[in-house]
Sequence to fold (85 residues):
Amino acid sequence: MPNTKSAERRMRNSQRKNLQNNAVKTRLRRAEKEFRAAVVAGKKDEAAKLLPGVHSAYDKAVKTGAIVRGTANRKKSRLAIALKK
Fold:
């Protein structure tokens, strides 16, 4: 348990940020899973429509600090490669 007032505040803030980051990451996983399902099913045109949305979601997650920029760039690149194959 926190011993000071500021430590209590930091604990509340970190808990709130953790919930927000988890929500963002869940949204990312869902979008990526939907995209990959379209690619595996052979629906290339549908997957091509989904790709900009997935890229946008990753960029927004980076902007809010939920994930690191390098991770987002790597995943975006691999998704684009998966679409081309």
Summary: Residues 5-84 form a domain with the Methane Monooxygenase Hydroxylase; Chain G, domain 1 fold (CATH 1.20.58.110). The chain has one domain: 5-84.
